[in-house]
Anaphase-promoting complex subunit 5
Amino acid sequence: MEALKIKDIGEAIRRVRKTKGLRLEDLADDGISTATISNIERGVAHAHTSKVYYLMEKLGLSMEQIPEILMGQEEELKELKFRLTSIEAMIDLEKPRDAVSQLNQIDLEDHHPYAALVQYIRGKAFRVMKKWKRAEKSFSSAIVLSKQNNDKENMEAVSFLELSLCCYLQNNMDKALDFANSGLKAFDQEGERRYVKYALLRNKIIFLERLGRVVEGLKVIQDVWDQIDEIKDMETVLTLYSTRVDLLRKTGMMDEAIHYAEEGLELARINKHYSCMFDMWTILGSVYTSKGRWERAEQCFHTALASKHLIQNGMVLTDAYVWLGILNVQQKKWDQAKESLQQAIANAEKHDDAPKLIYALRVMGDFWKEQDNKQEAIPYYERALQIAQKFHYKPAEKKLHFRLSQCYKDRDQKEFERSLLKMYETQMELKRGAGDILEEE
């Protein structure tokens, strides 16, 4: 028997056994063991032909019946796939509890072709409900089942994508980045859900940016940019645009940043993607602030904030408030700056967004330091430092130690020296033993 036929026959045997309400143990005897029956049902190629025929005879199954049985299975699989697609759509429609309720009515064995898909959808529902441990358990099960069943739907890669998102939403960027890399490694170019590759790359870039690894993030964007026309998900495309603009600003390439911001804004406007429009206006405003173009920057921020009622994810508001505060600090508009930065801090706290909260607190500290009120600045730097240390954001730690050293200089020699030492230790951790000879300019 050919391997493919053995697999088909095994599936037919399994279905007939189930229909008759028999367990593996009920069919086992001196002529065939439960292990052999299990191997036959799973289509293991080395199962002996005589054992297959022996098992079929015990079940009263003939070779002529198999095509009809398999045809019935194919129809059942189509119906189940349609049902699962509908359940997954319920999650996208913000009905995750209904999705879990429907999934609980589906009982599949681990070797079923859609066993991994069920676990993935369950995990996605729990992730939306912020039940992190249950979500992570379901995605881990989906990964195991996907490998076990030689899945062709990229369930392994898409589950790693969701795991990376779970970690990101819990402010664990290092682990999020590891999962994104695992997903890219697992991705099957010939499998289904091909959008997963670009979603993983998009997430990887975001995580690198959050970790302060700007040059690495920019390199990933440049590598994927030639394929951008292949990406069907417009949100992924626009996120790549906005992240590229932000990374270009951080590396000082302002004119190039403006070019891509304008391209991204046009795409977002045409597709009526308001969240991405908000993002792009904010980032463009940050570019003009960095260039000292105050009027243009202010117009960008006010345009972004004028659309905040259209934004579903309030997390993005933090950046706009921070940059508006920075702009006002640059212009010595202290009252407006303070109000904007307070809004930024409150918004980051509301959404439990640790990286943005660190940034907002740091800028509020800068606000007081710019007015030579270092005593007021210190608590903001200290609080930001505590959060950065909790989530291991080393680049942010280094910047905060430096600012604290500035505050303590000529005020508290012991704390000044302590901050400098901590800054040095953090820098050494960031280098991770790399030789100076390899250091870029």
